[in-house]
Amino acid sequence: MSSPSAPRLFEIRGLRARFDGRTVLSVDSLAIKEGEVTVMVGENGSGKTTLLRLLNGLITPAEGSVKFRGKPVPGEGLVAVRNESVLVHQSPLLFRGTVGLNVAYGPRIRGMRRAEAAARASAALRRVGLPGFERRRASALSGGEEQRVSLARALALTPRVLLLDEPTSNVDEQSRREIETIIREVSASGTTVIMSTHNMELAYRLCGRLLRLDAGVPAEVEENILKGRIERIDEQFAYFRTGDALLRCPARQGDFVVAVLPCDELILSRQPLDSSARNQLNGIVTELRPAGSLLTTVIDCGIPLKALITREAAAEIGVAPGAACVVTFKASAVRLH
Predict the structure, then answer these.
(1) Structural domain tally of the chain?
(2) What is the model's pTM?
(3) Strand partners, 245
(4) Residue 3 within a domain
(5) Final residue of a domain: which of 178, 194, 221?
(6) Residue from 305, 332, 175 nearest 251 by CA
(7) What would the pLDDT profile of 176-227 be if each residue is shown by its tens digit?
(8) How far is CA 120 from CA 21, 25, 110, 136, in A?
(9) Are 133 and 99 a contacting pair, CB within 8 Å?
(10) Which domain range does residue 185 map to?
(11) How far is the C-alpha of 166 from the C-alpha of 251, rounded, in Å?
(12) Burial bucket for residue 114 (CB in 10 Å: 0-12, 13-18, 19+)
């Protein structure tokens, strides 16, 4: 996850994308930070692929602007975004011939000598868990292998920005986990990752930021997505450590790295409640902002937690920046991924 002070990589203002006279994407304002893992989710036709193509400069918006490092795409920023980013399509096309030929193709057309490009291809294949695949025929690969080869082909170009369109579609569970590991390692190396997926498990586990598209319009995700780990499990609960907080969650075995807590499951109060809910955290309100007819409250409880509250309840409890409050929620409200 990028730091709050990370520079903006992409900035979108007043963007409208249209096909056959129909608006398929409408984004008033959106910024994507450098080093961030942004995961886009939404139904088919919600605009995820269109947004990826706009970021890569493959299509031009009907209205508004896309800027890469402050320069317009298309325009001055197009060369930079093409040099620094690679888009891996949902159904990547592999050339006839060997895997090594496919992966070395990008470095070769950028002027790299044959031996150096071959070495770069071998390193990329090792990185995606396919060492020794250089002489394999691309036509003989499984679906999961094709996806990893397409990732290797992108990584061989050492992109600073990796755009992925449904990278785990039509692959089995083992391939999904392998691709998740690759994306996590790529992100950890400093590459900005922007991807789309229908797989919410993958989205939660990978995202530094979750962006939901609803009929082409970005929608606020009213959930707390908390990274961490299971510290211990007993007969009743799994204890999930995130930041300075320890959450009681449903007792489940698994390699969980994310706890998801819907904002409307949190109850705010001045004093601890006499409740069967097994999570009560003391905190300080740090932010209060409108959310339609409600208010979104951010409370620092050793981790930042977002809660939805009515304006009447906020006034009654005295919710305001700097005020102390207690956050209460049930263990069953927490979903582990």
Answers:
(1) 2
(2) 0.90
(3) 242
(4) no
(5) 221
(6) 332
(7) 899 999 999 999 999 999 999 999 999 999 999 999 999 999 987 899 999 9
(8) 44, 37, 13, 17
(9) yes
(10) 8-221
(11) 31
(12) exposed
